[in-house]
Design goal:
By secondary structure, the protein is of the alpha/beta class. Helix content is about 35%, strand content about 20%. The protein has 12 helices and 11 strands. Strands 6-7-8-9-11-10 form a 6-stranded mixed β-sheet, with helices on both faces. It has a 5-stranded parallel β-sheet with strand order 2-1-3-4-5. Helix 2 runs parallel beside helix 4 and helix 5 packs across helix 7. The longest helix has 15 residues. It is globular and about 55 Å long. The two termini are about 35 Å apart.
Amino acid sequence: MHGLALAKRQILKVKDIAISGHVNPDGDSLGSLLSLGLGLEKLGKRVYMLSQDKIPPHYKFLPGVKRLQKTLKKRVDLAIAVDCGAKHLLGRNQAVFEKAKAVLEIDHHQFRKPFGDIQLLDHQAAAVGELVYLLLKRLKVGITPEIAENLLVSIIVETNSFQLPGVRPLTFSLCSGLLKKDIDFPKLIDTVYASKTKEAVILSGICLARCKFLKGGKIVWSIIRQRDFLRVKGKDYDADTVANEMRSIKGVRIVVLFREKSKRVLRVSLRSKGGINIATVVEKYNGGGHFDIAGCYLPNHPRSIKGLLSQVEDLLS
């Protein structure tokens, strides 16, 4: 791990701290943001926890979630980005970071574009929650049940409930300690992972019915249009698990899911198996992520879709 001592030193010498995750927050972003924020408050820091976008319903139970605010006008001593592989993923809160006296990045993405003064990085970490846990321990912050619950959500979501290659012995060791904080683990799993809204289930069915296969079934891709979201009254986060469902199809090695954000923009989620580095594709579109989980945005046009799929096919040539 890189930067733990520097991160500790920087945090201890400041008073006002803003923390932000990425746009379209997921469990890793929210869990690491909230656990870090609650932990730093125990050190007597004045903490502002930021999220410009709406919180998905299945994360609204998280301890501290009501403390989240969309943005901040005040200039802070330190701005901390969690789970952000590039500055633009902060969305409108980029302005907060540009005004801050110092910027700290806490991240585990293997393919990223650094933007902070200090980086706490480990691309082998299963989730950013692992890094937050180690930082809080270095700061001698006691792990409360509230902090533990947020850290567990970070790890559960980012590892797809401990199913992805990033899981390592340390992951289970950390979770073992967190579960000793009187966490109702079955309920936690059911709330953030096993339960889906009816909108999510219907959108998943629509998407799976549209699946198209390339390279003899080794690549699967699909698209969810704006009219689909409107038809079922669904939100963007209702489609967050679809790419993982497509990844479970037998014989598939690469998944590409296009989500229509507007008439001009598509959000693209990619997944892979067997060590295929899909991050090399999204880097060309100013995207990022890991070798097996990555994403980007591209123009909403058939030529753009065809071009990206062609690059994905080249990975299996």
